[in-house]
Design a protein that fits this description.
10 strands; Rossmann fold; globular; alpha/beta; 3-stranded antiparallel β-sheet; Chemotaxis Receptor Methyltransferase Cher, domain 1
């Protein structure tokens, strides 16, 4: 019989361990961990202490950095560190722009088959919202077909996204017409979850990707690219790298959409602004 590991909740990250962890996290995925986030990091890492059998942060960090544990633990460490807030139709003007401007404009340029990329998809609400807009456009004959690549750094959120299962209240922002078409209700009345319809799930492919990679191997260039509420976690150097690589993945005339609290000011990119936080590749 296995014995549960008792984690010392009075234990805290000492300065050396915190600096090693924050340095690794920055190098691995570009997320800055200033001193103000030490207590947040402590709280999130307790889950990994339990899972790996380490009663203190000191023994966990020794395992990571002095006994080779980082090779197998890195993915799990990053999973608990990353923030994964997600909502359907979050920042809705972006989806209005897709439906009313981007997709018709792309079709006029000869891009009837549209490829999109949700580059920080979290648990999937963003790419499935994109899919609803694009499926509706295809049904109306605006475009002929579409597919969506959805990537994230966290394996945990990708698994949830692939399943397409969500708490019922998470889909409240979905318009009723789309909810009828694309959201399946559970037959059992007591269940409080719903599932994205298979016909929509089949249009979205999920994969793990680290935006700190030197280049982004995504296959053919995309026509619409969402990278929202990710840049805020990066310093200017990392923002420049990420945005430069994202632009290389866009077709000329394709669209890049970033979060409403984000900016590309001061970064030399081959794009022009066409709406608030929406840019077109030149």
């Amino acid at each position: 019989m296995s014995t549960a590991v008792s984690v010392n909740f009075d234990d805290s990250l000492n300065t050396r361990d915190f600096r090693e962890l924050s340095s690794f996290i920055y190098d691995y995925c570009g997320i800055k961990m200033p001193e103000t986030k030490r207590s947040m990091l402590e709280g999130r890492l307790r889950k990994r202490l339990r899972a790996t059998g380490h009663p203190t942060f000191g023994s966990y960090c020794d395992y990571l950095f002095r006994h080779g544990g980082i090779e197998t633990e890195a993915i799990f460490l990053i999973d608990v560190v990353t923030t994964n807030k997600t909502d359907f139709f979050r920042e809705p003007n972006h989806f209005d722009f897709m439906a009313k401007s981007a997709l018709p404009a792309l079709a006029k340029k000869g891009f009837g088959r549209v490829r999109a990329w949700s580059s920080a998809c979290s648990t999937g609400a963003e790419p499935y919202t994109m899919a609803m807009i694009m499926a509706d456009a295809a049904e109306k004959g605006v475009i002929s077909d579409f597919n969506i690549l959805a990537t994230d750094l966290s394996t945990e959120v990708l698994a949830k996204a692939h399943s397409g299962i969500y708490p019922r209240d998470l889909v409240d922002p979905v318009p009723p017409e789309f909810k009828r078409k694309y959201v399946m209700q559970a037959k059992e009345k007591h269940r409080n979850d719903v599932r994205i319809a298979a016909k929509l799930r089949s249009k979205v492919g999920f994969a793990r990707m680290n935006l700190m990679n030197p280049t982004y191997e995504i296959g053919d260039p995309v026509h619409i690219l969402f990278c929202r509420n990710v840049l805020i976690y990066f310093d200017k150097k990392t923002q420049t790298h990420v945005l430069s690589q994202l632009c290389k993945c866009l077709v000329p005339g394709g669209y890049l959409l970033i979060g409403h609290s984000e900016t590309v000011t001061g970064i030399d990119l081959p794009i022009k602004q066409v709406a608030n936080t929406i840019f077109m590749k030149q």
